[in-house]
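ok new one. same drill as before - structure tokens go in, u give me an amino acid for every spot. 107 of them this time. try not to just spam alanines like last time pls lmao
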């Protein structure tokens, strides 16, 4: 499921803007939600703290790489606000996952 979600995200980010629907929701909200969702899926695959940190760093690196590759796509470019939205989605999902795990161990 993670690989499929990542493939959809990469495909959506690396197509020219003119191929995307004109009435898309807020771009930053899409970045936030996509990377939060990927983070939640990725965290289901690992339990070790080191692996979790590597996973989060890998997702951030993937977001950066996608932004860099967008410079090769017509009508697309690197966007720091998109990177901030990616990082915020990763951080929010990681924090929510950690809070959920902490609550479950207390109960």
């Amino acid at each position: 499921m993670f690989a499929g979600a990542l493939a959809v995200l990469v495909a959506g980010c690396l197509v020219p803007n003119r191929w995307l629907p004109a009435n898309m929701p807020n771009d930053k909200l899409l970045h936030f939600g996509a990377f939060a969702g990927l983070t939640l899926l990725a965290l289901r695959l690992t339990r070790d703290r080191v692996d979790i940190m590597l996973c989060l760093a890998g997702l951030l690196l993937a977001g950066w790489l996608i932004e860099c590759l967008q410079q090769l796509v017509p009508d697309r470019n690197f966007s720091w606000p998109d990177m901030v939205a990616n990082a915020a989605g990763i951080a929010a999902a990681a924090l929510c996952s950690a809070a959920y795990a902490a609550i479950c161990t207390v109960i």
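The mean pLDDT is 93. and btw The chain has one domain: 2-10+29-106.
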